[in-house]
Sequence to fold (1063 residues):
Amino acid sequence: MSMLRLRQAAPALLIAAALLTLSACGMTEYPNSTFNPNSDFNTAIDNLFDRLLFWGTIVFVVVEAALIFTIFRFRKRPGGAAPKQIHGNVALEISWTVIPAVILVLIAIPTVKTIFETQAPAPAGALTVEVTGHQWWWEFHYPEFGFSTANEVYIPLGRTTNFVLKTKDVLHSFWIPQMGGKRDLITNKTNYMWFTPNADLGSSAWNGFCTEYCGSSHANMKFRLFTVEPAEFESWARHQATVAVPHRTPATGAPGTPGTTTLVTVASNPSVTVTDSVPAAEPEIGYFFPAADLPDHVIPKTPIPADLPFDDGLLAGGDATRGQQSFILGGCIGCHAINGNPMAMSPIGPNLTHLATRHTIGGGLFTNDAPTLARWIKNAKKMKPGALMNTIGIGEYEPLLKGPVTAGLTDAQIADVVAYLRSLK
Amino acid sequence: MASIAAPTTASHASTEPENTGIWSWITTVDHKRIGTLYLWTALFFFIVGGFEATLIRTQLMRPNMGFVSAETYNQLFTMHGTTMVFLAVMPLSAAFFNFLIPLQIGARDVAFPRLNAFSYWVYLLGGIFITLPILFQVAPDAGWFGYAPLTTTRFSSGPNIDFWVLGLQILGISSLAAAFNFITTIINLRAPGMTLMRMPMFTWMSFVVQFLVILAFPPITIALFFLLMDRFFGTTFYAIAAGADPLLWQHLFWVFGHPEVYILILPAFGLVSEVLPTFSRKPLFGYNVMVYSGIMIGFLGFGVWAHHMFAVGMGAVADSIFSLMTMLIAIPTGVKIFNWIATMWSGEIRFTVSMKFAIALIAMFTIGGISGVMHSSPPADLQQTDTYFVVAHFHYVLFGGSIMGIFAGIYFYYPKMTGRHLNETQGNWHFWLNLIGMNLTFFPMHFSGLLGMSRRIYTYDAGQGFDMFNLLATYGTYLLVVATAVFVWNFIRSHTRGEIAGNDPWGAPTLEWSIPSPPPEYNFAKLPSVTSRYPLWDLNNPEMTSEIAHSAADAKVITDSHAVPMHIETETHTAKELGIPMPFPTAKPFVVAFSMVVMFCGLLFLRNDMFALSMTVTISGALVMVAGLYSWLTSPLE
Fold:
C-alpha cells in the first residue's frame, strides 16, 4: 500500500521540482532572484552555484535511487531466504570515501579561486559609496561628491562600485539579491564589497534588503539600488551634492532679476512647483529615476495603518514657508539635515536634502507621496514598529512619554511640513 | 542458554506498588523513570515549539499579513529556535540516554543516579524559566543565537534578554552534569566482556555526544557570562561605545553552536543504527567505520564553526580554511548514509513505523546534507546565508534528521519503556502526514531563499515573488500539526490500550531486549557477560552472528561475582526480593536544583534597582543549595 503510493508519487514530485526550478528564472515573477548574472560578482557566484547544483543533483539522484531501490528490492517477502549476514566490505568503504572526496575537491578549487577573486581589493577607478546601517534605515555617503542621502543608492552601469560598509548601532547586512552576495555591517569594523553592474542592463531599479536580524523593524529596513547610465549617474550625483532647491542663494541683483527663486507655494493640485518672482527656466534638478519607469517590484505595497487618520484635504493648502518653520517647531531639525538650511544640520537621521527626488520613504517602506508622508510625520512608530523617530502629531500616543503628544504639530502644520519637504527636489 | 526461569507474562503494571504518586516521581533516582520524565517533558516542549512555529507560519502565509505584531513575531521566532534546540531535541535525546544507556551496556543504573535526577530537574525548571516570559510578552526576542550588540542593554533594555541569558546558563548546567554522568557510566559500568567496540551504536554515538557537550558548552557559558556581566554589572565585553568587537560573541557562540548541531544529530544517527539492522535482519554494515566516522564528525565539528560567519568579512584566508574544513566533514557524514543503505541491502526489510522513520531520516538528511555542502562554498553562501535557503537546510537536517530519528527510536523503544506497543495504524498516519508535511513546509524554502527572501522577517511585501512558496509552507505546517496530534493521541492512549509487548517484540540483538518490558527496577537480575557485539542474536539466532568476533565466556572479563553467561530474563521481582542494593529515592537533587534556579532568579531583579530583593532571593537560594548539596554528598547512595 505505502510502496505503491511512493512509486506513483515519486515521478510527480520530481517533475514538480523540475518545473519549480525552471520557473525560478523569470524576472517579473521573481524580481529578487539570485540566479541572474547581472554583475561580475553575481556571474562568479552563479557559476560556482551551477557546479554545486550539478554535483548536488548527481549525489541526490544516486543516493535516493540507491535507497529506493534497496527498500523495494529487499523488502520481506513470504517464503524469502534468510539474508546473508554481511558485516562490511573494505573496498566499498574506501570507494564511498574517496569518490565524495574527489567531488569535494572539484568544488573546493573553484571555491577558493572565487573567494580570492571577489575579495581582492577593489579595482582602481572604482566609485566609492560609504554605506552606514542604522536601525532601521540606510545611509549612503558619496565621498567623491561630498553628499549623503538615505535609502536610495545610485551607481553607474559598467563601472565598479566599492561599498564601504559600517554601522552605527547593531549588526546589519547589505544585500541586493540580483547583484550579488551580501556582506554584514559589523559595529567597530569596516567591511568592503564591490561589484560591476553589467553595462548592457539599461537603467534599472533593484530591491535591497537588510539581511542580519537587527531588531523590531529588521523586515522593514529596505533600500533601492538604481543602476543607471554613466551620464545619468553624473547628473544625479552632481545635483545631489547641491544645496536643497528652496535654499539656493538668490542671484545677485534687484528683485525681479530672472532666476531669482522664491520659496515654494503649492498649486491647486498637490504637486509642488517652484515658482519665480520672474519667470525663468525651471531650476535644474538633475537626473533621478523616472517614476513612470519604476518596475512594480520596487513600488512598496505596505499597508497604511487604518487607525492613523489624517485630513488629506489639508494637503492642498500646505505652505512651504510655514512648513520650514514647523520643521523647526516639530523638532525635526533634531535629527534631519537639509543642506542649505542652516537650522537643519543633524547627522542622526536620514538626510532629507533632496527628498523629493526619492521614490520611497521610511527605509524603503512606503511610497513617497503627500498623504503617506503626512501620516509618517504624524506617527512614524505606528507606520513602522519600533521606529526611532518621535511621534509628532498632537494627540497621537508616544510610547516614550507613555501618553499622548502635547508638544507637537497639528495636521495643518504637518501639511505645511509636507509641502516644504516636497519642495526639496 | 535458555532463560533462567519458566517464562511468565511480563507485568506491565508498576513493579513497585509503593512507588506511585507525585512524590515517587520527585524523589526518583531510577534512570528509567528519569528517562520517562525527560520524554514527556520534551514532547510537551516540542508541542510548544511547534505551536510557536504554527503562529510564525500563519503570519507568513500572505504578504503584509498582520496576524501578529512585529514584536510578537520576533519573540516567537526566538522562542521557537530556543525551545526546539534546548528544550525539545536535546532532552528527547537525553530521554534515550537516560533510559537506554544503562540497559544497553548491562548496568543497573548510571554512575551518579542522584546527579542524573538533578540534571532533569534543572532542565524542567530552566525550561519553565525561559518559557514563562512569553505569557507576559517579555520573551527573549533577539533570535536563538542572540548576536551582540543587539543583546546588550543599550539595544535590548527590557528583561527579555535577561531571561534568555540566565535560562541558557541554567540549561547548560543540566547538560554538563549529565555529560559527566554518562561518560563515567559508559567507561566504568559496562557488563563484563563488553569492550568499547562491542557497544551498541546508540551508546557509542551518545558517548561521542557527551564529549561534545563537555567541550562545547564552556564557550557558550563564557559568552553568556560576558553578556551577563555587561547587562548586570556594566562591563564592556560587547559594548560598542567602548570599542567592543561584536565578532567576539559570534566566535564564542559558534564554537559552541556548531558542535551543538552534532549533539543534536548524532543520537538520532545512533537510534537509526539500532533500528535498521533489527528490521533488516542483518548486522550493521561497517560497524567499525560507523564508530570512527562518528568520532571524526565530533572531532572535525570543532573546526568548522566560522562557516556560520562567511558574510562577516573574516578575510579570504579564513573563509577558505573554514570552507575546506566544512567540505571535509561531509565525508564521514556521507559514509554513514552509505553504510546504512548497505545494511539494508540484501536484508529482509520489515516496514514497521519505526523502520519507516529510520529510512526517512536517510532520505531527508541526504537532502539537508547536500544543501549543507552548498553552504560550504563562501561565495555561493553569500547568496544563501541569512535567507530561507538556510532555514530549509537546517530544518531538513533537524526535522528530517533528528526528529525523524527520534520518532524511529520512540516507536522502537516505546514497548520496552511501557510494555505496550504504539498503534501501527495511527503510527502510519503519523509517518506519512509527517513526511509529506515536512517536505511541503521546507522544500519551498529552498526556492524562496534563493529568490531573495531574508530570514527572521515578520512580514514581506507583495509582488516580490515570495507568495506561493510561503503559502505552501504554511499548508505544510498545518499538516504537521495534524501529524503531531495523531502521534500525541497514540502516545497517550497506548499506555493503557496498546497491545502488550514481551521482552523482544522486534527480534533485536542487544542487551536491553533480554529483560522484561518494562524492565524491573534493578534492570538485570543477574548481570550478563557479553561475548560479542550482538549478545541476544548470539543466543536466539546464532547463525546471524557466526561471522563476527566472539570471545569465550570468561576471557578478558572483569571478575564480577554477579556476572553470568548471556541469558533471557522474563520474571519481574523487586530489588529487595532479590537482595540487590539499589539507590534510595531522595528529594535532595530536586531541592538543590530548585534552590539553584531560585538563585538565578534573584539576578533578574538586579537591573530593576531592586538590589535588596535581588540579594535576598539570590543568597537564600544559594544557602539552601549549599545545604542541600552538603546533605546530598554526605548521605549514602544505597
